[in-house]
Amino acid sequence: RTSRKARKARRRLAACAAKLNSVANAGRKGRDDLGAEVLERAFEALGGPADARQTVARRVLASFQGLRAYLRQAGAFLERIDPYLSNNPGLSARLANWEEAWEVGRLYLGTPLGSALSDAASSLMRAGESVPAFAAMCEGRDPELFLVLPRVLWLSFLRRPTEQAALMRSVLSGPHDAEALDAFAEAHCCLDARLCEALGDEAAASELLRRAVGVEPQTDLPPPEREAVARFMQELERWSMTLQRSCPEDWNACAAVILSVLAPSAEP
Q: 20, 145, 161, 194: least surrounded by Cβ within 10 Å?
């Protein structure tokens, strides 16, 4: 358990880092509100269930530790520090890394969005087990992955809308047709029921997932179901593009977090 003295020292250092960030962070926003509450949430997450939030927490703590180590080392050669602090590339890079990790931590640690992220990440891990080609794409960061990932995330959400609603709202924040989205969800529900009746629950989920990943389906569907699947996949592609284009910055940040959970060994 972290002592009160250690928490107080972290708060002081975080406050100093926020002031430093506002004048020396040349690579990002240079915000001055990087409080220690995200650090405390990160420590709490590490003591909780082993899920996506722990990946986020480790990133938060590692980036803060990197900044702290740099500042400790810099104390030994202050005469070599450029007084225009943003001209010190090592400092600026570590502040940018800390600011980015802090923003991710603020979103996903101790929030409903974090629970939704963990649920989606668990679903996508199971997708990788069901269709190994998807897991291989995540590990290799194949260019095709960035077309496949939003499709697979949609399929995950459509099967668990309540659990993952907060995550989809966070990335689908731009203009979109709510009635069309409801119709898309209803189309999936009806198709899923038809496929479950024809193939069984597990095979039905695999059928759509394999098509989303671009892998040859394992079943030969009757013509009516085949046509229904084809229509649904066209709609899935359209909503996948909407997901990426609604707010590209939010989508890119979300995708980066998801991939850091699915394939941590592929992280730079």
A: 161
